[in-house]
Amino acid sequence: MLFERQQLGPADAKCPSRLLRTSWFYITLYFGKRGRENQRQMTKTMLALRRSPLGKRYYELQRQIPGAVLATKNNQGGLSDEEDESDGKMFEVPGSPRCPVHLTVENYISHLNPEMEFLFQRPRVVSSKFNPDVDTVWYCNSLLGISYLSLNAEINPLLSNHCVRAYIHTYIHTHIHT
């Protein structure tokens, strides 16, 4: 539904804000434990691209980097707590236009502003000074505001940024397993 209503988009889209929202959605779905409380402080180096023994590529959080372990309801240490009971991995889906690894997050990271260490950067606006077909840097040297990312696709019940994982889990069990 988020793709149909163009809140999220195909990974090869030339829309910096949609690529940002789509990457944020996947990162939140696979690694987010609560809402946006700690996401603003995530850096590009917190995500590690690895390869499984069978050759599949995947992203995981670099646990040895301070702050890579995000707070949960049960583990509220936040940026200073290095314990993490989860082992989230975001695997590639070869051939899918919605592959979270190769076509989305990897594409997003390739267009980030190299002068900024933070993962979630403010998207540039298409104008006479910026053309995503020509320019490789699609994001400003500016950190996103706390409430910048929002999904507004008129989904009922309301899909808040705070509950992406819980909503998706409930949706799957309600609509797919019944």
Question: Could you explain how this protein is built, in words?
Answer:
The structure is a single chain. With 178 residues, the protein is an alpha+beta fold. It has helices at 16-31, 100-110, 164-176; strands at residues 47-51, 57-61, 90-91, 121-123, 139-143. The protein has one domain (16-176): hpI Integrase, Chain A. The strands form two sheets. The protein has a three-stranded antiparallel sheet with strand order 1-2-3. Strands 4-5 form a two-stranded antiparallel ribbon. A hairpin with a 5-residue loop joins strand 1 and strand 2 (57-61). The longest helix has 16 residues, at 16-31. Residues 71-75 have low confidence and may be disordered.
Structural class: alpha+beta
Helix content: 10-25%
Summed up, the domain count is 1
Helical run tally = 3
What percent of residues are in strands? Answer: 5-15%
Order of helices and strands: HEEEHEEH
The best one-word shape is globular
> Which CATH top level class fits?
Mainly Alpha
Strand order of the largest sheet: 1-2-3
| Termini Cα gap | 19 Å
Topology:
Elements: H1 16-31, E1 47-51, E2 57-61, E3 90-91, H2 100-110, E4 121-123, E5 139-143, H3 164-176
Antiparallel strand pairs: 1-2, 2-3, 4-5
Helix pairs in contact: 1-2
